């Protein structure tokens, strides 16, 4: 008999923003950048800890991980200061994936500065699309890889968001830098749910699964023009469970972005249904233990408060 999880949750992938500050170019009025979800105008509104707590009220979310949100790249440390201030005032978030452009001239200084913040556990720099001349992304660029090589020095993980057909480059990255944990965002971005796409996505993920320094965030699984549903994601969860095991998977809401498709309550409840056939220990790993191990959440607002262990 399947039993739905009712324990503590660490949301390993979410965002906050205060748009009056105009620090997110893609969220500015009148701006529309290409987005895999299509029209994202509905999320051009403030989203802060009180909003998240309201949306998650039906579930026992004990900690969250803020992921950089395309803040103005000229001032990446200002995003970290903004997030740290939120954490001190509101108790959320409890860990952070900060912005750092790995091919920038000042990457060493930025990584060193980011690593000194109490919440920062990782950095993200999307490697963009393949260059027409080589078919490769920045993951194969020497200057970018030189920046990546510095992550271990500062004890930082790397957050990878890239379409699934670039994941073989990611497997080479994990192989070449075994001391750096590579966190695959949005389940490797499978895209649509056609049989051919899911087959290609699985084949691309398999080499990453063979690398022990990789984990996967099961987040951002919505599709433009399609409603989110349990059935649409059942094969995705099954494949991830088979390849990585629950101890290398973690839940992420991608809120407020996935709020374009459904409520946070419905999203969490849907994932609880998707993993309900897993053992109790596996469900807890997926919703809590993996993220706790990877991100070591803290409560900056109350150092004596209970934090996940």
Report what the structure shows:
This protein is of the alpha/beta class and 309 residues long. The chain has one domain (9-295): Metal-dependent hydrolases (TIM Barrel), CATH 3.20.20. The protein is 34% helix and 12% strand. It is built from 9 helices and 8 strands. It has helices spanning 49-55, 76-90, 107-115, 142-148, 167-176, 195-209, 230-244, 264-274, 280-295, and strands spanning 9-14, 61-67, 95-99, 120-124, 157-160, 182-184, 214-218, 249-251. It has an 8-stranded parallel sheet. Strand 1 (9-14), helix 1 and strand 2 (61-67) form a beta-alpha-beta unit. The two termini are 29 Å apart.
Largest β sheet strand count, sense and barrel closure: 8 strands, parallel
For the record, the CATH class is Alpha Beta
**Total count of domains:** 1
How much of the sequence is in beta strands? 5-15%
The end-to-end distance, rounded to whole angstroms, is: 29 Å
In CATH, the architecture is Alpha-Beta Barrel
The CATH topology corresponds to TIM Barrel
Catalogue the unreliable spans. Answer: none
Going by CATH, what is the homologous superfamily? Metal-dependent hydrolases
User: Which word captures the global form?
Assistant: globular
Number of helices: 9
Strand order of the largest sheet: 1-2-3-4-5-6-7-8
Radius of gyration, CA atoms, in whole angstroms: 18 Å
List SSEs in N-to-C order.
EHEHEHEHEHEHEHEHH
Work out the number of β strands: 8
Domain Amidohydrolase-related: 10-296
Family: Belongs to the metallo-dependent hydrolases superfamily.
Protein name: TIM-barrel fold metal-dependent hydrolase
InterPro entries: Amidohydro-rel (IPR006680), Metal_Hydrolase (IPR032466), Metallo-dep_Lactonases (IPR052350)
């Amino acid at each position: 008999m399947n039993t739905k999880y009712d324990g503590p949750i660490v949301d390993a992938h979410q965002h906050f923003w205060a748009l009056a500050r105009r620090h997110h170019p893609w969220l500015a009025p009148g701006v529309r950048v290409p987005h895999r979800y299509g029209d994202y105008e509905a999320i051009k509104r403030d989203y802060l800890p009180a909003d998240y707590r309201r949306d998650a009220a039906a579930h026992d979310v004990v900690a969250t991980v803020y992921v950089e949100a395309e803040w103005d790249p000229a001032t990446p440390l200002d995003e970290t200061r903004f997030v740290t201030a939120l954490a001190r005032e509101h108790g959320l978030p409890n860990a952070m994936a900060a912005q750092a452009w790995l091919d920038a001239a000042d990457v060493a200084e930025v990584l060193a500065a980011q690593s000194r913040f109490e919440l920062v556990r990782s950095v993200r720099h999307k490697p963009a699309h393949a260059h027409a001349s080589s078919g490769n992304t920045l993951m194969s660029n020497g200057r970018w890889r030189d920046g990546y090589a510095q992550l271990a020095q500062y004890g930082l993980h790397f957050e990878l968001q890239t379409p699934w057909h670039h994941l073989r480059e990611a497997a080479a990255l994990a192989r070449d830098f075994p001391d750096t944990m590579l966190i695959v965002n949005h389940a490797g971005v499978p895209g649509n749910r056609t049989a051919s796409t899911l087959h290609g996505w699985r084949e691309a993920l398999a080499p990453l699964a063979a690398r022990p320094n990789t984990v996967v965030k099961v987040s951002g699984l919505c599709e433009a023009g399609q409603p989110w549903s349990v059935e649409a994601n059942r094969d995705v969860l099954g494949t991830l469970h088979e390849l990585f095991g629950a101890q290398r998977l973690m839940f992420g809401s991608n809120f407020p972005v996935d709020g374009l498709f459904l409520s946070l309550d419905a999203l969490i409840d849907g994932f609880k249904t998707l993993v309900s056939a897993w053992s109790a220990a596996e469900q807890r790993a997926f919703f809590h233990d993996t993220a706790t191990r990877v991100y070591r959440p803290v409560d900056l607002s109350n150092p004596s408060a209970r934090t996940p262990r």
